[in-house]
């Protein structure tokens, strides 16, 4: 697993910028993706993948510990669909 701090360091090294600039760039990316998903827009990075906002319908769920059935409210979440370029790299 890579932490945010490790990601900032890697970005700084690969882009030839300092860590503060890399941290600002990463935070700007995260904020922009979050804002787009919140407004219902997908974020598509060709060759990498697509972040999609999805709505999960309300329903019933079962607590695995107690077996108790509970009502689950509708909620929004995000999904990531892997792009062909990333998929090829991972399987190559």
From TrEMBL:
Keywords: DNA condensation, DNA-binding
UniProt-listed SMART domains: BHL
Single GO MF annotation: structural constituent of chromatin
Coiled coil spans: none
InterPro entries noted in UniProt: Hist_DNA-bd (IPR000119), IHF-like_DNA-bd_dom_sf (IPR010992)
Entry annotated with the keyword DNA-binding: yes
Gene Ontology biological process: chromosome condensation
Pfam families in UniProt: Bac_DNA_binding
Record family assignment: Belongs to the bacterial histone-like protein family.
Name by which UniProt lists this protein: HU family DNA-binding protein
Species per Swiss-Prot/TrEMBL record: Caulobacter zeae
